[in-house]
Amino acid sequence: xxxxxxxxxxxxxxxxxxxxxxxxxxxxxxxxxxxxxxxxxxxxxxxxxxxxxxxxxxxxxxxxxxxxxxxxxxxxxxxxxxxxxxxxxxxxxxxxxxxxxxxxxxxxxxxxxxxxxxxxxxxxxxxxxxxxxxxxxxxxxxxxxxxxxxxxxxxxxxxxxxxxxxxxxxxxxxxxxxxxxxxxxxxxxxxxxxx
Length: 195
Description:
Blueprint: E1 5-6, H1 27-40, E2 45-47, E3 57-61, E4 82-104, E5 107-125, E6 131-137, H2 138-151, H3 162-176, E7 186-187
Parallel strand pairs: 1-7
Antiparallel strand pairs: 2-3, 3-4, 4-5, 5-6
GO molecular function: peptide deformylase activity
Family: Belongs to the polypeptide deformylase family.
Protein name: Peptide deformylase
């Protein structure tokens, strides 16, 4: 089932998410729904706060980045990079910082250059609640860092400089009011209820 994606401005996107255990209700269905929602919105990652749940869970599928774009810049190592990360903890971020044009399903039609470290070491539980620890680099690391920010109550626009933030303010306000067209279901925090 496709879930509505929470839009910029909703307080849940600013809340630090809580850990869950194996008894979390309907977890298997939630994970399936999150993948379905992410694919329908043409995303490569989706965190639980983006579907209105303040829990430490996100799903990623970086396979779209495995295919060459017009610059021939695809990364074949991402072909099968599909993961469920539960209760993740970033242990280390290392390497040279680099810029990449990021976007977010909760902030549609806004893409900006964000600088992040090249490598990340992350510990998490997979969908079977088996502990995993992986070192990621490049786009895989970036996607994980972006989604991890969501469960920490941070957004990619927080990493922009003051001038860029000021330039985006009216667009972000419009998104929070539902004044944006998207090809997927969204939940807007500041829509006035009709009586």
